[in-house]
Amino acid sequence: MPFSTRTNDLSERLVNGASVNDVDAQASEISIVFIVGESRAEILSPALDQLRKMPRFRHVPIAVVHDPGLDVEASVAGHGASLVESASSLNQDRNEAACDWLERSGTRYGTIATLPRLRKLKSWSRQVLHEVETLRRLPLNGSTPLMVWTDHGTKLSVARYVDRTLSGGEVRRGSLLADFLGRLALCAARPWLDALDPREGDVEIVGFLSAAFSPEMSEPPWRYRLALTGPSGDVARSGPVPLTPRVGNRGTVQWEGLTTRLALDGVGTGHWRFVVELDTEVPELRLRRNLQPRIGALISARTVGMHAAADDAPGRTRTTTVRYLLHTVGDGTAAFLTTQRGSGLRARLQWAVMLLKKDAGFIARGPGDRRMRWLRLLRLLTRPFFAGREIWLIGERKDTAQDNGVHLFRHLRESSARHSAYYVIDRSSPQYGRVAPYGHVVAHSSWRHQLLLLHAVVLANAYSIGYLVPDTWDVKDYTRHIVWRVGALRVYLKHGVHLSPNAVKRGATGYDVCLTVMPGETEALRATSGYDRQLVQAGMPRYDALTPTPASRTILFMPTWRNYLVTTALKGAQDGEISYEGSAYQRFMSGLLESRRLHEMLEKHDYRLTFLPHYNMASRFEGATVAGDRIEIADADNVAFQDLIRGCDAFVTDYSSVHFDVAYLGTPIVYARFDEEDFESKHSSPTWFDYERDGFGPVVRTLDDTLDAVESLLERDCRPYPLYTARIDAAFPQRDQQNCARTVAAIEERIPTRPR
User: Fold this and answer.
1) How far, in Å, are 255, 289, 344, 593 from residue 243 at the CA level?
2) CA 395, 523, 694 angle in degrees (round to 5)?
3) How far is CA 599 from CA 248, 632, 711, in A?
4) What is the mean pLDDT of the chain?
């Protein structure tokens, strides 16, 4: 726990009811704010009764922050507690109300907590008193109470408190108040490890403090240190590390980043734990916490070897090899590093033996799913059969073969005998037949699939590597117990240009190769995602098949989906936050498909319109009404969307990144941004791509304007506009059929060589 729950003699006597003369005199020093939701309302009265029976809390000011409409007045009657109604049931409003009351309480110390369960109330009260006694020894005074953290405290209340304190006046670097705020933040937040990178014998730690700070908060004046520690103490410590700006998933910039370089020159062979601690000289404020690995750090973990100066080489003229392996144990709340320093055959054999011991220990008594232990054993037993083979597992969604995955697979099967490439797809998929002629097609979740995954050197997917995990495997157990042992290179082939790069985070995805298409996209990802050297501007494999076809007199309408209209990213999803029926999305789609004006202009100019719904919305259009036979709804299971793209003479979309594919071909585009405000506030995050400035066609926002734009194209027989042709030429540095070749070269360059 961030704070010790051990009590000193005074707090123990006070809680247990011993007679202490100054109990009442000190009561005004502490104020308490409980945040009570509906789930804890029924225990509020007995909790207050129990608390008031403790001498130290008999007369302390107490406030109860409750949700609107939650009747708790009877519960606080006779307990001397104030009621504060939150503006809403949202956590930010609850904590804002709690901080407002605490600020006005006039006490020296204050604590904000969710109401503890009755059996936890006494230990919580001890923790409060212990922390108050600790703070009392410090010469800290201010116009607002000093916040006391407990295990039932809330991260949001601490974030609000820190923000208000910093904005209330200058808090100097190195001051006692700065260190107090830094400790408070470290108590409430969760320290995360996003990634670990080799750097010439050292490691670069890329992490962050999940503190929920306001984007408007001032720069934090305190510092932290990161360290590797073991049973005998620290073996490596960083210098003071400031919090740096970090871009979140929604594009907000917060002071949360924790990045530093940790020297390994004094670290020998052993097993160590990553910790973060407050950089302070004040003993009462010293605090360290484990650095917890994010899934992206674990799924990209493998044995890493790098050259470093030998310990006995003054001037760094002789080198040795440093090996390390990032992993976790138990409940996964701490990041560990196994290290070795040494060169030559003996060192390599020692490392291999260490890995085998880890295998044996896990197989014999490892935690988690028994299946994982059997899989580790199966991997050891079948290793000789895969010696010298370079297994590449490639896929998309488990039931699709139409995107970058299948295009890369086809390239490998037709042009390279060096790679043992396999495509993973559900045997019952309607698209199975598209990829079957190339051979090496593996049924998803079959025993063959599982065996190949245990020995794969490369995992490449157009959507998520998670689609390559067999259905029978527990993903969490696989991440903790199998991934690091296999050490396969993880390649994100992606399924479109990233318009909202904030949604791509290295700590959540852990890719070794992430493809990009154009400079604007690459720089946007580099600035926000945590990826850098992993970004490869190679284009997308499916672009190799983007060759023009004869005019088909067809307009393709291909909108994207809305995550607030469906509950999950799956076909047949039910209503989400907003009902689909009656939504702006539904009204526009129905209006266009049923438009008599559209049908008449198509008939007049002898064109057809094909509507291809997004995968996640397709069920909404089964049996949909259309205005006439010149408008048809395509089924993605029965037609390759790339054939539709290549064959269309004009393209209409809302925000789909497929418009980049269309632009690659030079086909005219119309952007129908009919629900711009809803889409940008509820679905997307900020984008580097400005449709008005960078787009490859006119931008319209109503159904009538969309029909006008389409009619204008039809009247010019869908010839491109010169303005947009110039933008396309400037946007794509490479417009050729070498995208697959560049992708393969980038992967081969990064395939790790490691002890297995």
Assistant:
1) 6, 16, 40, 52
2) 95
3) 45, 11, 11
4) 90
